[in-house]
Amino acid sequence: MAGVFSYSSSYYFISLRYPMANQPTKNKPMFYPWHHFVLVPAALVLALYSIRRYVSVSGDDTEDSRLWFTVMLLAVVGLGVLVMLRQHYALQLQDRLIRLEVRQRYFELTGQSLRPLEAQLELSQILALRFAGDAELADLTQAAIREKLSSKDIQARIQDFQFDHLRV
């Protein structure tokens, strides 16, 4: 299947788009150009080059060797920060999905929207409520609001604990 290269300016994402009839069953690749095509490659090239330069001047106690050690250290730390940012993005997205999941479960169980109550709940409370079984979700939500329970208190009250083994 031939994909059509497209660029979405509203979110600055590049993706491969397919006509609806030819949608592939696997996920389409999504790239954030500044991250995938500029920052990571530049940091990787800088880290590798500065390591190579430092190795060539190491052993000398010169200003040049200290400069390349500093550049190497900054490049490696910068590359590490970029890698950790990917994990941060994944956790942020997962928190949003968990919030949507709890909203949906609450609506299915009570017939009422959770949105009016969300202003009274902290994100950590909502994340803890995801572990509650269907029979206790609504009551535990009300108790969390009424008694201002912490996430640990919510988890301690759960009788039918639904484990989440898919956390990033």
Secondary-structure blueprint:
Layout: E1 4-8, E2 13-17, E3 30-31, H1 33-57, H2 63-110, H3 115-118, H4 123-129, H5 134-147, H6 151-157
Helix pairs in contact: 1-2, 2-4, 2-5, 4-6
Transmembrane segments: 36-55, 67-85
Pfam family, one: DUF6526
Keywords: Membrane, Transmembrane, Transmembrane helix
Task: Describe this structure as you would to a colleague.
It is a single chain. With 168 residues, this protein is mainly alpha-helical. It has two domains: 1-31, no CATH class; 32-157, no CATH class. It has six helices and three strands; from the N terminus they run E-E-E-H-H-H-H-H-H. The protein has helices at 33-57, 63-110, 115-118, 123-129, 134-147, 151-157; strands spanning 4-8, 13-17, 30-31. Strands 1-2-3 form a three-stranded antiparallel β-sheet. Helix 2 packs across helix 5 and helix 4 packs parallel to helix 6. It is elongated. The chain crosses the membrane at residues 36-55, 67-85.
